[in-house]
TrEMBL record:
It comes from the Bacteria. CDD domains: NAT_SF. GO terms for molecular function: acyltransferase activity, transferring groups other than amino-acyl groups. The keyword Membrane does not apply. The lineage of its organism: Bacteria, Pseudomonadati, Bacteroidota, Flavobacteriia, Flavobacteriales. Keywords: Acyltransferase, Transferase. This is GNAT family N-acetyltransferase.
Length: 170
């Protein structure tokens, strides 16, 4: 059976479902021994803010939400200061708050998410995708490596140091 997978903007009436997915991800990070997302961020207000600003996106499988992510154009103040160097200074898409529903965990959904983000980036004529993650988020680090993202250095975000990556799309 072929699943229909698509990326679309999240709707405000989906905020409870999305917050539930983020809570699952927060708990998985905790069980993995990570400090990422363990200080009350992201939270339900973050989700509502993302959606109302048009940053909230969902990857759906047969219309069921599998992954949530915030996609922000050209706007991440923390990225203006990097210990290291970005690959480019052009327009970029920032990927934040990637969370997979437990039902879809371990099925390569985040790689599919990045495929869709890269298509979105290209179709909007945007130069690159920038993303950061915690040092101890081995799952995301492996995904970024497998998708060809380059390690650019460190950024300071949400009270901690993060590894920063970029991939030139066009």
């Amino acid at each position: 059976m072929n699943s229909e997978i698509r990326l679309r903007k999240a709707q405000i009436d989906e905020k409870e479902k999305i917050w539930n997915i983020l809570q699952q991800a927060i708990e998985r990070r905790r069980q993995d021994g990570s400090s990422q997302w363990q200080q009350g961020y992201p939270n339900a207000d973050t989700v509502e803010s993302d959606i109302s600003k048009g940053f909230g996106y969902v990857l759906t499988v047969n219309d069921e939400i599998a992954v949530y992510a915030a996609l922000i154009l050209n706007d991440e103040p923390a990225y203006s200061t990097i210990e290291g160097a970005w690959l480019s200074n052009g327009e970029f898409v920032v990927v934040h708050r990637v969370a997979v529903d437990a039902k879809f965990a371990g099925k390569g959904m985040v790689k599919k998410l990045f495929d869709h983000i890269e298509e979105f980036t290209c179709s909007h004529g945007i130069q690159s995708v920038k993303v950061d993650t915690n040092f101890d988020n081995t799952a995301m680090l492996r995904i970024l490596e497998s998708k060809g993202y380059s390690y650019c250095g460190e950024v300071f975000l949400a009270g901690g140091v993060r590894k920063a990556f970029e991939k030139i799309i066009i």
